[in-house]
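Following up on my earlier thread - several people asked me to post the actual chain instead of describing it. Fair enough. Here it is, all 392 residues.
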Amino acid sequence: MDEPFFAEDPIAVASALAARLAESAVARDRAGGHAATEREWIRASGLLTLSIPKEHGGQGASWSTVCQVIRVLARADSALAHVFGCHHLQLAGIRLSGSAQQQRRLLSDTVEQNLFWGNALNPLDKRTTAAETRGGYELNGLNSFASGSVGSDWLTLSAWHAPTQSALIAVLPTRQEGLRVQADWDAFGQRQADSGNVSFNGVRLPEELVLQAPGQTPTPQATLRSQVAQLIMANLYLGIAEGAFEAARRYTNDEARPWLQSGVPSASDDPLVQHRYGQLWTLLRPAQVLADHAAQELDRVFAQGAQVGARTRGELAVAVAEAKVLAHKAGGEISSQLFELTGARSTPSKYGFDHYWRNARVHTLRDPVDYKYRDLGRFALQGALPEPSAYS
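Reply from S.P.:
Thanks for posting it. Predicted structure:
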């Protein structure tokens, strides 16, 4: 396998990659399926090693930088931005829950072999079970919403352990015997996010690949994984919002016609159009500010390692929830309202403007935003911090 390219400027690399993805994004969204070629572009970019610490051969980038890259990619192709973000989420899980030996092996191998990680960890799906065997466990069952699993090299997985009434978390090569990735994702948005199902049929899981054993209470440090996941989603939604806003802005300036009663020479001179863009801008800008703030807080707390306390973790969860709900709103509103600004002539399929809304609508259903508002309401009213979970 070719050596990964270590980017001196990951934002510039991401921008060039996004421009390349944008050329076929609408057509690929229409076709659905697995973007095998484009995923190899991501691999070749060197960005798969971005979040891996330098001591393991990676680039040691901050989460602020990783989130910026996700946002840049999501402006062009939010499905593959999700696949990319999902990859770094799995690496975060290894860093947060893995032993020193597991981190050294798995992260170094990721750099040396330029591995692409996927997800088969679903805290709400208990259909995959783990039974003790000599030296490990046997896995049987099915996990859904396995983002980035198609075309991956390794997977993070969860499995239900009946004796302890708890889940284990582990990693396995995607080509492990008895493990099968089902490329059956068929939603109306995020159509190339490779989020189908993963089945396990007598799969052997060695003890040394278990990150969190059954019955083990996760430390505050380990529970940061959900905050990484939520912030990845926030930047995904924000990237969709930025992409939709820019598409609408270009169309309004270059192609839209002024309304006959406006009395102005161009659509962009229409005060009502300007007013509506101002409304959307005041959705977008606060979302950007809160997302950047939350990423900085994640960097600060992540760097504390095993010293992370429950209160510090809870305060981070508030910052991430703030970013998530505003990005959720910006992504949905801007991707929907752009049509009221661009008009009927912007609806032909050649523009593909509808994919912004479809992608935002599908992905923002991953967990209910009302529970984020509830957490923030509790904090505002009572000073209560969000309780650690897979989503908060």
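Residues 135 and 204 are 9 Å apart (CA to CA). That should answer part of your original question.
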